[in-house]
Amino acid sequence: MEQNGLLSWVEEILAQGSALSGVSGHEADLSGFLADIWGVYCTESRKDVVGNQFFLKPGKSGANKILLAAHTDEIGLIVTAVDKNGFIRFAPVGGVDARALPAQAVTVHGRSEMTGVICYAPAERRAGKPVPLTHLAVDVGYDREEVLARTRPGDIISFAPEFQTLLNHVCAGKALDNRAGLAALAVCLRELSGRAHAHDVIAVATAQEEVGCRGAATAAFQAQAAVAIAVDVTHAQSPDVKQAAQLGKGPVIARGPNLHPLLTEYMENKARDERIPFQTEVAPRPTGTDARALQLAGAGTPTSLISIPLRYMHTLVETVSAPDVMLTGKLLAAAVTGLSAELEELDFAY
Amino acid sequence: MTTPEENWRLLRELTAAFGPSGREDEARRLIAAAAAPYADETREDVLGDLIVTRRARGAADGRRIMVCAHMDEIGVMVTHIDENGFIRFSPVGGFQAARLEGQRLRFQSGLTAVLVRQHPGAGQDSAAPPRFYLDAGLSPAALSEAGVGVGDMAVSAVEMTETAGTVSGKALDNRVGCFILLETLRRVQSRHDLYFVFSAQEEVGARGAKTAAFALAPDLAYIVDATIADDIPRNPVVRLRLGGGPAVKVMDRSVIIAPARREAVAALARSAGIPFQWEIIDQGGTDAGPVQLSRGGVPVAGLAVPTRYIHTPAETAAKADILLARDLLVRCLEADMD
Description:
The structure holds two protein chains of two kinds. Chain A is of the alpha+beta class. Chain A has helices at residues 3-19, 31-37, 122-126, 144-150, 176-192, 214-223, 261-273, 291-296, 322-342, and strands at 44-47, 53-57, 65-71, 76-82, 88-93, 105-109, 113-119, 137-139, 156-159, 164-165, 170-173, 200-206, 227-235, 252-255, 279-282, 303-311, 318-321. Chain A is globular. The two termini of chain A are 41 Å apart. Chain B has two domains: 5-73 and 170-334, Zn peptidases (Aminopeptidase), CATH 3.40.630.10; 75-156, CATH 2.40.30.40. In chain B, strand 14 (247-252) and strand 15 form a beta hairpin. Chain B contains eight helices and 18 strands.
């Protein structure tokens, strides 16, 4: 497929993925979407008890397994109570930025889906400080009785902003952390469908990353892969973020003790071979991604982390560049193909 | 609902047992003795977990269920004893000294000491965070003779009190869970193999449950714990109240329960006419987290007893909630598995 066709496919996936709801622990609504964008290039798929969804793309020899992991879940809210006036109180699921919430539209996933708006006391806003999350509520329009007939504690609330297509193949919307990663893996699987690769590829859409990289831990235990690559997003430069990757300058390869040095170097070399521009991110501590769980699950797995630059993380206008997503997918495909010859030669023992 | 007096005596004994994280031996002995008449096998692991097996009754279906309640409690560890016998300490688990000022703590040897807020002293910064120490009224030599030294632990010395409808005291978190497991063990007739785990070291990060789950590799797990009741003055939006029935876990800091699992528990409660409340807490984790993530993942559900003033010596719970939690747990364990 020529470049522009691939780019519009990526943009389409980002728009579709952003519109779906998959708050941590409640990722099931994304199954059909994953079947469409990954499943068509794979032979098998299955789910596990934590909510992970696995897809298998068999290799020629199948001697080893390569685990490619991108988390499906997104941050959101959960209903805790309905107050005497019918306003829905909530708690965060994952790292919700309370500053980004007031006056936003949401969907309450009750007995049926309801649109709501996040309300707050205007006087608090005038005080010049962010309104604490505990003072916010969701207004769906009904009084307490009617609201209680439609929702109850434990129901999920997802964000419902409009997806925006900006200029220069840049897109903005909610949950692009990590629908962008899912899109990159779709590109990878699509590229691989026309190429020979020796080892089995297990693409896993991991659950519950935003609440502590939980799905990745059980996924890696099950897969027992020879190598694992986490695909996620990372902060890109914005007016108040200077020390970060740049949007539109290609995938970001992380270096640090969470990532295996040999596998990291292999990824960098692959990018150079394929003339894919890449950026470097330094992660002195365990990364805030699935890579931290993949590395340590079971007896341990050599792990690499490839990230897509993203602005305004954990807000409702997460912003990514479609070419970055596409190049991330191409780098992954090149890495998988390249490992055909080299996996046996790499000795990952320190 | 009526219950023989001796049942609450068991809870009183359980709360009285000394058992801060990592020093659960006294609690473990008591629980093992109470479980013995109903156990097919009892063992300990290296973390200090007590694992009581009750094999399937009737037509066994070969499924294995882990039922877990932590037996450890919060406390303090002695870090230093000065030349006058004043004892400095570190918290073990979520022990908040400021909430126990003036209260008596008890060491495993039986010696008690009072928890004192240190006087800031003349000319000292009164805005500095307060410091605390324990005073047993003994010299360093006498403390040593009384079996108290650096590394020893102490817990609240409060004894459980009862009203017609409530119990109150220290370590209801989570001896109330241990009580429910023991009461369940006495009654349950299940086609599944049941593993009752009285886990160690939950209060310091759910450590015992992690290794127990790995060792048992169960098909399903139920976690039973105490949880925060917030039906207290000046709280306009109450999530969990005393007397509203057991809490069925939706989420805490360590776990999100699969919607189908919590609905399965809710359906059993509804069919038995047991009232329940949904538990959503955004502070504190439980054994449910590491058990769910053990090996390739374990389906988990959670039951909890709403408890006011958690992590104080005044933890208060409703007797009805405790008994209903037991009834619901029995039903969960006797139900067919999908």
